[in-house]
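Hi R.,

Here's the chain you asked about this morning:
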Amino acid sequence: MRIAFFGDVVGRSGRDGLSDHLPGLRRRLGLDFVIVNAENAAAGFGITENTARELFDAGADCLTLGNHSWDQKEALTYIVREPRLIRPANYPILSDAPGRGSNLFELRDGRRILVVNVLGRVHMDAMDDPFAAVNRELDSAPLQVVADAVVVDMHCEATSEKMAMGHFCDGRASLVVGTHTHVPTADAQILTGGTAYQTDAGACADYDSVIGNDKEEPLRRFTTKISQGRYRPADGPATVCGVYVETDDKTGLAKRIEPIRMGGRLKETVPEVQALVSA
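And the predicted structure, written out as tokens:
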């Protein structure tokens, strides 16, 4: 299975960047399934039905969320109606969070992919144990028993927590990828048990910014400790960042992982198309 995962979409710039690049990339790489983290898609904070539709129209099959899941209140009802939208699985039971923390999607050819979203706990809001939550999800749809591929979006601040989740899932997931910090890391690898891993997929955002936000307000807060307004997404051309993973049809484990970066300010990195076509 050929899977692409794209990091946090930030505002209009990120949505436009994905709309510009994803349709062609999907055709060129023969992608079977596309996952996009969209928790910052609506003006940098949360998601709305309209912004979600833009991303689905661009070619996303599934949208994951994070700590900004409910910043746009309409998401609380939209997620109940939209099974392709997934919030973190480790909300406290007593919160009665709407929607679901995972979903098993069936492709047109009958293959199935499980997508799981969890929030970390280091330097983040208090949540239930993400490792226990992921363990339950993996047990409910084991790789190559129920699911042909499994992707875990670990949305958290600490790189150590993301790495720990990668090793925790090694051999039971096709891909574990980090989101939230908006900066693509250079550690794309296949772990010893066969799980593809990257600490952070990066963001689909204007990188002439502070993690996708216009520079003025973050700089003011860092230098003066005085806030004069909300963060606003930077509106220059977006760099679309993510990872490409190819799985083994027999095991569901990864046999290839490569970073994706297209457009904007960062050096472009795209999986070599001819090698994929001839494989």
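Helices lie at 11-29, 49-58, 75-81, 130-140, 159-169, 216-224, 273-278.

Let me know if you need anything else.
M.
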